């Protein structure tokens, strides 16, 4: 999610000399730019390949076509909440969404205001059916969310509690899914522990913003239960969300506070990311929040959401709006 930022002393870690075997300064194609002040927090894909983009700065979900044939449209606006903090596809063209109140003035969540909803699309309407599922009052600051395949479970990372919870969307029961020191906030006034969460290759992956890591733990069984101790696969990274290449384990990290897309080989063992696109002082990838493979483009075509630049956002000095951008990490766009 957001959170990275006021980790300014850590910016010195940002610019890693690229490996000569890897591309760098990859071109960034802006698919859609929202008005200045729009914080695009995360994304999900529709079967058509268009992006469902969620807005943390307003309670809106947008559909952004990536082929340029249609205009971006507002899909839904929630009421009685200030923004949308998470979205994940749970079954074909059905999505779980987390909403709640986030104070940008204090740069913190309002605990007790968060809730889970379901969006269902069908062929009869271009608007989704929206169903309220339940509140999640025990969570302090929900961040990354993840659906457990073929179960009613939604995993929710709480950045301040430093835990990942398992929420049953049928019974509304909630329990701790994973708790470990590598999930905890650490060492700064801005408490920002576990952030993005993903399943890939028999592992549960997670990022921790304060600890500047991406790590993973093996999972087992139908419910993807964590087994054993986690291992760090990337370090010295101001990681917000990220994506894993399911074929080779390569990791692409949205480094929000430093305006960069970082890369760590699937063979990495605590490796510092190489910069593939963006730059600390640039606006071409200002405040990247999440990364997602374009439909049919896994390992090659990467979609990145962004805020317009976190420092500028907080100071009211943004020069670009939140964006959905396309980066081709292999081949041409």
TrEMBL record:
Show which residues constitute the signal peptide.
none
Identify this protein by name: SMP-30/Gluconolactonase/LRE-like region domain-containing protein
The organism of origin for this protein? Oidiodendron maius (strain Zn)
Taxonomic lineage per UniProt? Eukaryota, Fungi, Dikarya, Ascomycota, Pezizomycotina
SUPFAM superfamilies named in the record? Calcium-dependent phosphotriesterase
